[in-house]
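Students often ask why we bother encoding 3D structure as a string. The short answer is that it lets us treat folding as translation between two languages. Here is a chain of 152 residues written in the first language.
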Amino acid sequence: MTETTAAEVGARLPDIELVGPDGTVATLATVRDGRGAVVYFMRSSTCPVCHRHVANLVDLAASGRLGDRALVVLAPGDAADAATVRARHASPLARVHATGSGHAQVGLGVFLALQHSGVLVVDDDGVVTYRRTGAVPVGNLDPAELLAALAG
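And here it is in the second language, the structure alphabet:
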């Protein structure tokens, strides 16, 4: 796992502006609806590994294993990118949006043409309680580690 400069555990995640698949604009706080959240930042809207991670996260949400936390899935880019992800993951459990330049605003930069991605868990106040990020998406979701963090 490659470390990035994403918000550290204990820091508040920036309330970035998001765009939905239909072009509506919101902020991360409004999408979370005042709840804690599991926030997955995708590498791209077409990344096959990222889509597997989204499917795994939707399954965890559907089984109730994410608790009452919102599942927020964020692709870099615009409404078309959010629509691409939404078309593939039509579950109402996943709140799909695009971040525009929001990945960079939370410290997930681009290294050697690879957009950093990862999973962050935030509490009701938007404070990061768990983080797993990197340049290569294969290691950016460890369901057992995530569930242990949610339980702890």
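Translate back mentally: The chain has a mean pLDDT of 92. Keep this in mind for the problem set.
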